[in-house]
Design goal:
mainly alpha, single chain
């Protein structure tokens, strides 16, 4: 089966799965390798506090990434269906609404995060380091 001739509507499911599985697996492996390399650089450059900060913020990053993917993938599927029906105007409206809804939701998330920065970090597991008087923002006050 040629890569450019994939027929998801009528093709053999096992063959389509094999065709899509390996590129997806390789992409996920490289993504994991990138995360490991980032951890090594932060661990050597900043130390354990930098790794702890990354691990505290990572779930928040994953949630926002998931929300963005939800809007992007969902809207693209529905817009593709409308384009297949030769309804370009509806496809454009769907993409515009998805972008606007995502922008509003991320605006609310950014505003709430800015207003409740410390409580959110404490809720995620951040603790106050009395030794260096380190805040969750990473600033250090030395006496």
């Amino acid at each position: 089966m040629n890569r450019d001739n994939l027929d998801f509507g009528n093709g053999n499911i096992a063959s389509l799965f094999r065709t899509m599985f390996f590129p997806t697996l390789i992409a996920m492996m490289f993504n994991s390798l990138l995360n490991i390399c980032d951890g090594m650089f932060v661990g050597h450059g900043v130390g354990s506090e930098g790794l702890a900060a990354i691990n505290i913020v990572a779930p928040m990053f994953l949630v926002t990434t998931g929300i963005g993917l939800m809007f992007g993938i969902g809207a693209s599927v529905i817009a593709s269906i409308r384009l297949a029906e030769d309804n370009v105007k509806a496809a454009r409206i769907i993409m515009t609404q998805a972008f606007a809804a995502g922008a509003v939701i991320f605006g609310v998330i950014i505003t709430l995060t800015a207003l409740f920065f410390r409580p959110l970090l404490y809720l995620a597991g951040c603790s106050y380091n009395r030794k260096n008087e380190t805040s969750c923002r990473g600033k250090t006050k030395r006496r």
